[in-house]
């Protein structure tokens, strides 16, 4: 168990063995890694033992926990009161990986899909409960901080193992308890359109640049530095940036260098292609693409497959059709947090997983992830930040869930976007802590 120091903190590595399938505890086991962070003045063994634990559940799916650089971001506030455990959820980071490089060892696409069916919130929560008992003892309880998809996991935790939780803080992660994948994307496309319209209002010249780039990609085959194919539809996916506080400005700076100046024919610049690849490649988090729709599957909501819901629902919003936009004078709309089957053809990090993703898209009867009746009887203090017109998580769903969870208190704000926890310097977390403690 490695222990090392960073500015203002002492960090301890933990590795745990957990069952792949918690219904078969004697079966195959995988590793889950977590990083414990304690403020330096409280880092002596005696002081550490007095601190309550705060488990951080990362967004995603498929995102590894933050890699801290001392007391930075929301840790600045958290470490005043807690020792923090940054969990690399199964399949991510230093936990047993699930990528194009490791999954082929599982067998064919059907075997890989069966393996990944154990990587949703229910399994993550079961991992957490084993870790809690090992670190805190059978009767110990810890606090939860769930960001985005981590908030989904926190709701699953409160549904099935609330006895392990003393309080929960959720930021941008109140999922619709009864929303299918189709419901999620049917609500998402109009939100994305609003964000794109707001960007074009802020940077009017970007509408013409996006249109020019899309036209060029429709008419010319362009390959990214890493070998991926940059199609017009793939380019639309940079709209994912627009859900963060600085995303609109980041997108503008990406677009201002799109073309090499003073060339006889349009040529996309190397700097643009390199930066676009950084935003579009799933090499760093393939599970985000593979599991993005299965995280909404619940048999009591719909026993049918999720079935590439974002692609199916997109047909209901023809304004997102790049060819139709280019055929007329409409603005080319960008897309957001949507995963499409063609991504498993254009992205080299996903291409080997194409059949596996198809298997998961066709999977039926996913187990339920939430227990509305138990949440209605909830006794754990819960405070949640709901970001007004959040591009990634539907505000109406979030508020409906807030009403459905007994005792949950919300802070609805338009001061921050979805990344408020990360960029607020601890202010978002401080507000939620005070809400949960009844100080506000």
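^ structure tokens above, recovered residues below v
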């Amino acid at each position: 168990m490695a222990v090392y120091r960073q500015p203002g903190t002492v960090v301890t590595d933990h590795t745990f063995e957990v069952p792949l399938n918690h219904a078969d505890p004697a079966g195959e086991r995988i590793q889950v890694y977590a990083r414990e962070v304690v403020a330096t003045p409280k880092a002596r063994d005696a002081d550490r033992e007095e601190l309550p634990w705060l488990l951080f559940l990362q967004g995603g799916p498929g995102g590894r926990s933050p890699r801290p650089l001392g007391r930075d971001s929301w840790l600045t506030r958290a470490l005043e009161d807690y020792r923090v455990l940054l969990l690399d959820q199964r399949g991510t980071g230093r936990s047993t990986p699930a990528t194009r490089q490791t999954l082929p060892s599982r067998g064919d696409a059907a075997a890989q899909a069966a393996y990944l069916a154990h990587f949703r919130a229910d399994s993550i929560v079961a991992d957490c409960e084993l870790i809690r008992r090992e670190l805190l003892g059978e009767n110990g309880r810890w606090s939860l901080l769930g960001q985005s998809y981590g908030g989904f996991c926190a709701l699953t935790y409160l549904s099935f193992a609330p006895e392990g939780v003393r309080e929960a803080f959720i930021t941008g992660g109140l999922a619709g308890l009864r929303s299918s994948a189709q419901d999620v994307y049917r609500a998402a496309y109009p939100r994305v359109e609003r964000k794109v319209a707001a960007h074009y209002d802020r940077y009017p010249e970007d509408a013409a640049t996006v249109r020019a780039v899309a036209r060029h990609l429709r008419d010319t085959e362009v390959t990214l530095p890493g070998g991926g194919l940059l199609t017009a539809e793939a380019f639309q996916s940079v709209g994912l940036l627009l859900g963060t506080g600085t995303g609109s400005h980041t997108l503008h700076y990406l677009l201002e260098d799109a073309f090499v100046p003073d060339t006889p024919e349009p040529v996309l610049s190397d700097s643009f292609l390199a930066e676009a690849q950084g935003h579009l490649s799933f090499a760093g988090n393939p599970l985000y693409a593979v599991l993005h729709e299965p995280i909404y599957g619940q048999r009591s909501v719909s026993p049918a497959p999720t079935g590439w819901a974002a692609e199916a629902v997109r047909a209901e919003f023809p304004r997102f059709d790049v060819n139709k936009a280019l055929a007329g004078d409409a603005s080319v709309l960008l897309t957001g947090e949507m995963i499409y089957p063609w991504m498993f053809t254009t992205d080299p990090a996903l291409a080997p997983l194409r059949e596996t993703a198809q298997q998961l898209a066709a999977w039926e009867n996913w187990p339920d992830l939430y227990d509305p009746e138990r949440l209605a009887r909830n006794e754990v203090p819960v405070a949640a930040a709901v970001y007004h017109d959040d591009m990634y998580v539907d505000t109406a769903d979030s508020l409906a869930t807030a009403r459905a969870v007994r005792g949950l208190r919300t802070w609805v704000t338009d001061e921050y976007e979805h990344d408020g926890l990360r960029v607020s310097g601890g202010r978002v977390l401080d507000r939620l802590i005070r809400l949960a403690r009844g100080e506000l």
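The CA atoms of residues 144 and 168 lie 5 Å apart.
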